[in-house]
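User: My collaborator sent over this chain with a note saying "see what the structure looks like." That's all I know about it. Can you take a look?
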Amino acid sequence: MKQRLNILVVFFIFFLSLLPKAYAQWFIDLETGLVSSGYNNVRIPGDTGTEFSLSKDLKTDPSVFIRFKLGYQIAPRHSLSILIAPLTIKASGNINKEIKFFEEDFPPNIQLNAEYRFNSYRLTYGYDFVSSEKWRIKIGLTAKIRDAAISLRGNNKESEKKNVGFVPLIHFRVEWRFNQDFSLLLDGDALGAPQGRAEDILLAFRYQLNKNIGLRAGYRILEGGANVTEVYNFALLHYVVFGTTVRF
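Assistant: Without extra context I'll predict from the sequence alone. Here is the result:
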């Protein structure tokens, strides 16, 4: 996975080196806060495993998260960015039924410890087709690498299902500046297909501290999953978000 990320970063930097520098502007975006589980339903394999919930059958506590984005404003309306968004959630408890999970069978009423990993690495191109004093509307494409895994441990047994893959997404960003310094932001990546779906959407208030630094606070939702023979998993995650964007 680290090799894939390194390739993505090298490609990003190489591509930027070929672009004209007349307008070039870099920006860094940092985001942190708390993430908690809504639903997180699992069945592995998708056709023969036992379905259970990491958030209802087991207990999942809120955890701190961090996301990092490096961006490049190519021109007034064109931008590129690379996002690194690691995520690990742990759950524990006991379930009063046998759990057939991937390569192991876990007996009922034993202490179970689960880990849900969903690291996301994204390369995004965006174009501002509306750019005015009050409104900025962007549309684009995101190439996402998903590094996911679900593991279950208990009764001296352990089983882990990993999944690494590429996902294309539609990117959008709508910002309404209702005041000289304050704005309302809707930003996200999303796409659906018969086999599954993915949505990562932020709604936040922004405050422009000065020309180069913006602050925000809001709510992010991460939802989606897949229903295929290999794996069934659909999860909903809630984020309380605090972030900053710094331009150079």
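A starting point for your reply to your collaborator: The radius of gyration is 20 Å.
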